[in-house]
Amino acid sequence: MADPDCIFCRILAGELPARVVEEDERTIAFMDIAPATRGHALVIPRAHSVDLLSIGEQDLQAVILAARRLAARAKERLGADGVNLINSCGAAAWQTVFHFHVHVIPRYEGDPLQLPWVPSPGDQDEIAAVAQELGGP
Ligand code: 5GP
Ligand code: ZN
């Protein structure tokens, strides 16, 4: 279950310190060591899973519900104006710790975070083609 080389498993085992803000039977939430904004926390399953595609359904459900509780708390207690939930699945998608986690990032009007892409209208033929590939039989 636990991976001795995984830093989040080591946090769970109490081998590495963390500022825990919430826990339940399946999940634990603690402050990110390099916060993007004030209150940035991570929610993880107690059981080691590498990523979104390998986590079990019950753990996934528990993590998302815990993330929502934390999002509500960030609004109530920290005065956040909004919240981003972020999950990176795979190194190409910026995942750096390979124990599934959801970032709960409180957002404040005028904070310096930016969307990681610049929205602009896409090519309709290409959108149709990829929709076919993704949604087709
Ligand atoms: P990822 O890049 O995989 O989406 O997110 C990993 C997150 O874990 C990063 O935001 C990083 O700051 C955080 N992190 C990495 N090592 C530690 C640690 O030892 N303790 C805590 N609390 N957070 C960590
Ligand atoms: Zn782990």
Question: Could you please describe the fold and organization of this structure?
Answer:
By secondary structure, the protein is an alpha+beta fold. The protein has one domain (7-110): HIT-like (HIT family, subunit A), CATH 3.30.428. The protein is built from three helices and five strands. A five-stranded antiparallel β-sheet has the order 1-2-3-5-4, with helices on one face. A hairpin with a 3-residue loop joins strand 1 and strand 2. The longest helix has 22 residues, at 57-78. The model has no long low-confidence stretch (mean pLDDT 97). Guanosine-5'-monophosphate binds next to strand 2.
Distance separating the two termini: 36 Å
Provide the spatial order of strands within the biggest beta sheet: 1-2-3-5-4
Q: Mind telling me the CATH class?
A: Alpha Beta
Output the number of helix runs: 3
Mean pLDDT: 97
Name the overall outline: globular
